[in-house]
């Protein structure tokens, strides 16, 4: 797992990038699965979700489980512009519930 140090310098850079994207927009390749991390301390999990979701054609999920059900529900919004998808994601507590349950199991 990758540990990413969040420093003051990084936060300034991130905020500047976010302002630039809001002002100028951002081109995202069609078919790329992206979700904004809105749950603190979940960057590794979100990274893994991105890796899995963007390789769904290469991964056999078999029987549905929490993550594949989550990704399955996302299929309908998969090709929406990122900002439209995120509007639904930020208020969706199913991922937080999935993460909380996963932590509780360990």
UniProtKB/TrEMBL annotation:
Its main location: cytoplasm. One of its GO terms (molecular function) is cysteine-type deubiquitinase activity. It catalyses: Thiol-dependent hydrolysis of ester, thioester, amide, peptide and isopeptide bonds formed by the C-terminal Gly of ubiquitin (a 76-residue protein attached to proteins as an intracellular targeting signal). This is Ubiquitin carboxyl-terminal hydrolase isozyme L3. GO terms for cellular component: cytoplasm. The gene is LOC106550681. Its EC number is 3.4.19.12. The keyword Hydrolase applies. Preferentially binds diubiquitin; the interaction does not hydrolyze diubiquitin but, in vitro, inhibits the hydrolyzing activity on other substrates. Keywords: Cytoplasm, Hydrolase, Phosphoprotein, Protease, Thiol protease, Ubl conjugation pathway. GO terms for biological process: protein deubiquitination; ubiquitin-dependent protein catabolic process. It is found in: Cytoplasm. Belongs to the peptidase C12 family. Residues 1-106 form the UCH catalytic domain.
């Amino acid at each position: 797992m990758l540990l990413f140090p969040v420093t003051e310098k990084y936060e300034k850079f991130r905020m500047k990038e976010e302002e630039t994207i809001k002002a100028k927009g951002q081109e995202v390749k069609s078919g790329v699965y992206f979700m904004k991390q809105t749950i603190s301390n979940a960057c590794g999990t979100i990274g893994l979700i991105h890796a899995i979701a963007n390789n769904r054609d290469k991964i056999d999920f078999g029987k549905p489980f929490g993550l594949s059900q989550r990704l399955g529900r996302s299929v309908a919004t998969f090709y929406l512009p990122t900002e439209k998808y995120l509007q639904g994601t930020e208020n969706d507590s199913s991922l937080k519930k999935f993460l909380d349950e996963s932590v509780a199991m360990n």
